[in-house]
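Lecture notes, continued. The same structure-token format from the folding unit now serves as the input rather than the output. Read the line below as a description of shape only.
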């Protein structure tokens, strides 16, 4: 079952029209194997909830803890997301932010360590 429904990080990065499943959709295979990262500049952000702005593209890639929601824009059928991410701050506790209206271009995907496509059950046609 896993190999048929799996979308690789490369596919997500290359095709922004693929909707990213939220964590409540129970797409366990994806979130067990892939980390999502979001460009975000927290330098001038005072609140825990922030509406993503174009200048955030110049920020660092931050690990997305979960994708909370997605919405399709009627203007061009693209998706925007609400994400929860963590910003590690030296000598302080990590700061959690909720970002709203995050465009697809600000999200990037990578395999988690030791979780590449090769480890998914059913990825090969026969046992090796």
């Amino acid at each position: 079952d896993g190999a048929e429904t799996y979308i690789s990080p490369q596919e997500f990065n290359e095709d922004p029209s693929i909707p990213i499943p939220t964590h409540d959709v129970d797409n366990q295979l994806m979130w067990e194997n892939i980390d999502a990262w979001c460009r975000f500049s927290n330098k001038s952000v005072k609140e825990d909830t922030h509406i993503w702005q174009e200048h955030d593209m110049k920020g660092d890639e931050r690990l997305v803890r979960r994708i909370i929601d997605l919405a399709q824009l009627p203007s061009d059928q693209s998706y925007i997301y609400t994400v929860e991410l963590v910003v590690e701050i030296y000598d302080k506790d990590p700061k959690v932010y909720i970002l709203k209206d995050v465009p697809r271009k600000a999200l990037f995907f990578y395999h988690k360590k030791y979780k590449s496509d090769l480890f998914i059950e059913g990825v090969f046609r026969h046992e090796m």
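Point for the exam: The chain has three helices and six strands.
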